Each structure stands twice: as C-alpha cells, then as structure tokens.
Amino acid sequence: MKKPEKLEGTTTVGVVCADGVVFASDSRAVAGYLVASKEARKIYKITNQIAFTTAGGVADAQNLVDMLKAEAGYYSMHEGEPMGVVSCARLVANIMNYYSWYPYIANLLVGGVDAKGPDLYFVDMDGGATKEEMTATGSGSPVAYGVLENDFRSGMSTKEALPILVKAVRTAMKRDIATGNEVRAAEITKKGYRELSPEEIKKLA
Predict the structure, then answer these.
(1) What is the CATH number of domain 12-204?
(2) What is the sign, positive or negative, of the torsion defined by CA atoms of 35, 122, 45, 97?
C-alpha cells in the first residue's frame, strides 16, 4: 500500500520549558476543501503528566490516544508508578512502526514531565521518534516554525512560552487554509496537566 505523501491540515506546536512542556493547536478539522469541524480536539491528556498533540487522520489519532491511555493505566497498575514520557513515546512509536505497511495516518507530539524532568518527542507515521526541545506538526508548521525560531529561547518558563505558542498558531492561521478557528493550549508541569480556558488564551494573544 502506498503511503500518503503528506498529512493534510492542522498546526500543532510544542516546546520544552524549564518547568514543564507547553502545547498549542488550532481547532479546525478539514476533509478536502470542507471544514468538517470548527471544534476539533488536537491536544489530549494521556495521564496527569503526559499529553499528545495529533495531526493527520482523526480516527487514527483518536485510536492511538485511547490505546495509550489504556496502556499507561496498565503500566501504572503493574509497575506501581506512572509511565515515563520516553516510555510512552517509544511505545506509540513501536505501535506505529508495526503498522507502517498499513499505517496510522498521524504525526504526534508526546510530551510531559516525569522523574527526569520535562521531555518532548516527535513521533512520525513510520514510527520514528526524535527527542525535541521545540517542534511543530501539520500543514501550518512551516509558518509556525518561523515564530518559534524567532521568539522561543531555551530555559523559558511555561508562562513565558505560552504567548509564543499561541502567536505561532495564530500566525499559521493567517497563511494556511487548513489551520483555523480557535487556538487551544495546555501546559504540563509537576502540578499536572492543565488546559487553558478561552479567556486565558485571549489574554495571551
């Protein structure tokens, strides 16, 4: 089976900060030239310390999220401790590699905070996983990267980084037709996973 040449639609961004990991995305889901949804979820809580962003096929992404939520729960019960970020990234990468001839059409950002500190990985549809400090996925990622490369600096706090990620997604909305509607954002720190409210995001913008 021939694999698709590119993933259509969306912009998601993620960065590692001194005190955690920050994610942001748009909320538009497209089917060709149709805006299929204006309220699509692209940031998912896996555990209280790990989250995903998804770009690609909605059903594939949701299936992977459900699978990893279950696996993280099994791991915690069996090992008596939460799954680490790198373990979660490697597991989903192995799953995607196993099905690479009949692929999950998705690119993921896997990030969070564990005993080793903040961590972030990019996982592609072939099952490749790379450790990142700053990354983006989706059709609007080239535009988002322009903002991230210019404004983000290593060692920033989540509070400092959040406005930059919101700006990156908003900028992608202006140039990428498949990125649009609302900005969503979340942070993962030692305190756990937290999604920002629409009011908080408007203040950041």
Answers:
(1) 3.60.20.10
(2) positive
